[in-house]
Structure formats: C-alpha cells, structure tokens
Amino acid sequence: MQKHLFQNQTSFIKTQKRDAENMPPPLTIPIIAVVGSRHSGKTTTVTTIVKGLTAKGYKIATAKHIHQPQFTIDTKGRDTWKHAQAGAQTIIAVAANELTTIKKLNTTTLSLSDITKNTENNIDIIIIEGFRNLVAQAQTVPKIVTVKTKKEIDEALHVFKPILAFTGVASQAEPNTQQIPLIDIKNQPEKLIKIIDKRIGPTIKMRRETKDQTGIDINGEALPLNPYVQKVTRSVLIGLISTLKGANIKGTENIQIKITNPNKPTS
C-alpha cells in the first residue's frame, strides 16, 4: 500500500511539474521599487505613488531599507524596548489604531521574498524604497529611479532593469536617449501614477478575481498550480480537515497549513 501511495505521489509530482512548465508565473503581489542616490527624492516619490494609487482604491504596503546599522524603530526605555532587552525575539505592540511587530534577527541575508512575505494577502501592491542590491536586475520588479543629474540617468540605465520612469531633482534635465519618461512629480504626479497603474493594474485585477483559489508557498516562493490541481488540493484538504475534532468547515473559510523542517532553525 505504501509503495502504491509513493507511486501515485511520484506520478502526481511529475504531472504537476509538466503542467507548471506551460503555465504563466503565479499571480504574486506586484512590487514597484523606488531606487536612487541619497537625497535624490526617493521618499517624496514613494509618498506620491502611495497617495496616487490609494486614491484609485488600491491597498498599499511599503518597505524601506534603512542603512544605519544600530537603527531601531523602538524607543529606549519603553516597555517594548525592555521586552527586547530581556531577550524577546519578537515583540508585538498593540495600540488603539496600530499594531507593530518588531523582530530581532539578522536581516543582511534576507532575500526580497523574505521581506515581502510579511505582507498580508489582501494588499494589492508593495512599494519598496531602496534595496538596490536586491532589485537592480530583477526583471519582475519595475523601478522608478530618482536622479539628481544627467550623469545619474546614464549610470542608472546600466545598473537597473527594467526602468519605468525617472523622477527626482533632475526632472528638468534633458530627455535621455532611451525614451524612458523623466517626470516632475511635484507638478505632474498623475503622469507617474498613470504609468504605474498601466503596468500593475491588470495583475491586480486578476488577483482580485482569483482570491478564492488555492496556493502553495515553498520557502516563500509560490508554486504554480493549474486550476484542476487547485481544485483537487482544496477538496482533499478541506475533506481531511473537516474530519478533525473541533473543525466546523463550511467551505468559505480562509485556511492556512504550515509545514516546517524541525531540524532547520527558524528566523
């Protein structure tokens, strides 16, 4: 029986791999990166994007890379700071209108997926500020590059791909030869929002239409599943869970199953 089960599992995996090769990439949350040199207008660009996309009804998450090695969002002497000093690895602070999670860990080895997987699934788009080494050549992460001079525009064309637009204090510089828009977001913010919306709008629409589908993440990476496999996986898991004591399954629940390697330390 075990041999038969193993053969069925092997056949299922081979079929899934074959189907995955012919499938489009999974509909992960779109990411837009704002990158550029210091004091070139990155934060101003991020806040302009967030304001414009929020006005269109999108739910936004942001992430910012902070260079100061000793930086902490906590405040020395506060109760949460004392929790960390006592040895807590994760500190959760809950106020009337805010919930903050502070994790004490080495972030120098984190990948982009490690960072963005902390985002809730109901978010439509993630805007990240910085992280240039993680996103420079990432083809799935369009960039808005903030620049101060024409020279920085030329350098960025060799460092970052793909680039949606240039912004920043050099917005009055001469147009570059690559036909990439150079936008003055102070006077024309809607132009940048239109470019971004055109790029990520279709993906967001498709994600919203497929919210009820089944997904599997392995180490933070989404595994492509064709509609048939999604349906079978969902039916099998719901059928199994419904037999467990205390489970009252109606079919409309948001169910999460987590499997970890007991021999691998968690971050």
What does it look like?
With 267 residues, this protein is of the alpha/beta class. The protein folds into two domains: 31-68 and 107-209, 3-Layer(aba) Sandwich (Rossmann fold), CATH 3.40.50.300; 213-267, no CATH class. The protein contains eight helices and nine strands. It has helices spanning 2-21, 42-55, 79-86, 112-116, 132-135, 150-159, 189-209, 227-242; strands spanning 31-36, 60-64, 90-95, 98-103, 125-129, 143-146, 163-167, 216-218, 221-223. The chain has a five-stranded parallel beta sheet, sandwiched between helices. Strands 3-4 form a two-stranded antiparallel ribbon. Strands 8-9 form a two-stranded antiparallel sheet. A hairpin with a 2-residue loop joins strand 3 (90-95) and strand 4. Helix 2 (42-55) packs across helix 7 (189-209). The model has no long low-confidence stretch (mean pLDDT 80).
List the helices and strands and how they pair.
Layout (H helix, E strand, L loop, with lengths): L1 H20 L9 E6 L5 H14 L4 E5 L14 H8 L3 E6 L2 E6 L8 H5 L8 E5 L2 H4 L7 E4 L3 H10 L3 E5 L21 H21 L6 E3 L2 E3 L3 H16 L25
Parallel strand pairs: 1-5, 1-6, 2-5, 6-7
Antiparallel strand pairs: 3-4, 8-9
Predict the CATH topology of the largest domain. Rossmann fold
**Which strand-content bin applies to the residues?**
15-25%
- Shape field: globular
For the sheet with most strands, the description reads: 5 strands, parallel
Overall pLDDT:
80
Number of strand segments: 9
Radius of gyration: 22 Å
CATH domain class name of the largest domain:
Alpha Beta
